[in-house]
Structures are given as C-alpha cells and as structure tokens.
Amino acid sequence: MHDFLQQTLSGEAPHQRCGETPWLRWRWIDHGILQLDPLGEPQQALVLSAGIHGNETAPVEMMNALINALLRGEMALRHRVLAILGNPAALRAGKRYLRHDVNRLFGGRWQQIDDCDEARRALRLEQATEAFWLEAGKAEQPRWHLDLHTAIRGSWHTRFGVLPLNPHPWPAPFINWLAAAGLEALVFHTAPGGTFTHFSCANFRAASCTLELGKALPFGANDLTQFAAAQQALAALLSGGPLPEAREQPRRYRVAQQITRLSEQFRLHMDAETRNFTAFPQGALLAEDGATRYVVQQAREYVLFPNPAVALGLRAGLMLVEEEAPAETLPG
C-alpha cells in the first residue's frame, strides 16, 4: 500500500492486504482501517483516528503523511497502532456527514437511527477498535486514543482538546503529551456522550482525547504549519523519539451546561461569527426553544461548538467554565 488516504478514497481493497517494513508489520482491516504492529516489543496500544467528519481534512492530511512514512519504512514504530479514517463516504463527498453525524453514534447509539451506511460504519469502528484493544490479551499496556478533528467555527484557541467523562485520573504522560502537541486548552466533559473517544474511554479505559486542530477546510487548502507541534508530537509518539517541548500548559475548562435543540422553534442567540471560547456574562440569554431558555448561570461562561443547525435532540452548543490547572502541572 503506497498511500493510505488514496486507497481509502478509492473504495477498493488493496491488492496487497498485508506487508512488512524493517520496523513493522501492517495489515489492512477494512476500508480506512489499518493495523500496524512493531517488530519489537510494543510499549503501548494507540488508536489514531481522523476523518470522522468528512470535511475536516487537515488532520487527515497530517495523519496520512505519518502513516505513509511508516509504510515506506522511513520511521520506526514503537507501539501497536490502529489507524482509522472514520467516514470514507463523507471524505469523498467533502461533507461533514451524509445522513447522520457518526461522532454521535458510538456506544451503541447507531441502533437508535435508521439502517444506513453511517450507522453501519459506527458499528464497524466499534468492532475494529474493540478487537484491537483486546488483541493484546492481559498485557497491561497503556491504551491511548487520539481522534483528530477540526472545528466548524473559528476559535480563540486554535488548537484544543476535548476529553470525555472519565471517573479515573488522567495519566500524567497523556496530559503532558497533549501539552507537547501544542494544545492551548483542554475541555473536560462532565457527562457521557456518543463520541468515539468516550466509547474508548468508557469501555476500555483508554486515555482518549478529541483534538481540534484549526478550522474545517477542503483538501489542499490547509496550512499544516499551524499544527507543526501536533505533527512532531505524533511522530515522536509513534517512533519513541523525544517530545517537542511544551511552550505552556493548556488552559483548562469544564463543561457547565449543554444547549440542546429540542424542536423546530430552537433559536440560538449567537451570530455565525461567534468564535469558540467566546465569553458570556452571568444572566445572558444564550438560546430559546419554546418555553425552554438557556441562560449563563456562572459568573462567566465560554461557548464551545455553537451550531443551531444540528438535528433535533442533539447538542447545539456547550457552555464552559475555566478551572485552575492542578498544582503539579503548573509550570515552575
């Protein structure tokens, strides 16, 4: 296989479905799903995904460059890796999704919609991920899942991470890696969700994060230099090399409330240019949906992912409060 992305976009199985380089063995699992195993003893298991939304192309290009370098034998590999391009049909169409948002369908939520390609794809990704996590048997290797995205809107933090609800402490090496990847902010969920990273964290105790890297643009229109730190950190993670030095610790936010579009009457009181992490004062009216009113409850809340066009019953935005970083992660 010469190019993981082009093979995925072709919609065809490769002529050669497995192979070996001086560093690894690779195996084609399914369209957009590739497993790579180091020839040496693996240090941990890593799921690396992108393209869950088909119009978020910068992370796909970044990930593809790294996977192709591994397939050409130009990089060493230290970990077991499952590389995933999440929604090939949407990638081909250049659309966020065709009928349903795949990143709302995990944890079995695909069963709640009509039988369609995206419901089947969410199931297939669950199956492939579960098989990968469990393949190592009882080996106590760290499990990480990095799901690479871009945001629909501009953002006051160009690069940020969203971490799912997790009842366990986050591993320090994982949080340190996110800082080394150049993330300016980390957002911690306080409720379960249907995202790919929540599925990995909740079911397999994987340290997982949705990385938001810039704004959604078509293939070829991305300035990947904005994400050089993330690409360097990914290359270092895969090869076992030294991480780039974190310039500063990311700011930390916690989800305080969710804005949900309940009916056709829903109105979001933010214009299309409102950036992620825009601050609103206490008492500000955020949205209305019939008799339901969403109002800022804390002294200051920051909006994330405002989108009035989501399907009924889905999240139309999150409101965040900023938290102090734990003392042990503050720069000295």
From TrEMBL:
Q: Which segments constitute the AstE/AspA barrel-sandwich hybrid domain?
A: 249-322
What residues does the Succinylglutamate desuccinylase/Aspartoacylase catalytic domain cover?
Answer: 43-237
- Residues that coordinate or bind Zn(2+): 53, 56, 149
* Coiled-coil regions listed in the entry: none
Catalytic positions are 212
Tell me the superkingdom of the source: Bacteria
Alphabetical list of InterPro entries matching this protein = AspA/AstE_fam, AstE_AspA_cat, Aste_AspA_hybrid_dom, SuccinylGlu_desuccinylase
User: What is its EC class?
Assistant: hydrolase
Keyword Protein biosynthesis carried by entry: no
Known catalytic reactions: N-succinyl-L-glutamate + H2O = L-glutamate + succinate
What keywords is this UniProt entry annotated with? Answer: Arginine metabolism, Hydrolase, Metal-binding, Zinc
What does the record give as its pathway?
Amino-acid degradation; L-arginine degradation via AST pathway; L-glutamate and succinate from L-arginine: step 5/5
> Required cofactors, per record?
Zn(2+)
| PANTHER family attached to this UniProt entry | ASPARTOACYLASE, SUCCINYLGLUTAMATE DESUCCINYLASE
Report what the protein is called: Succinylglutamate desuccinylase
**Which species does the entry assign this protein to?**
Pantoea septica
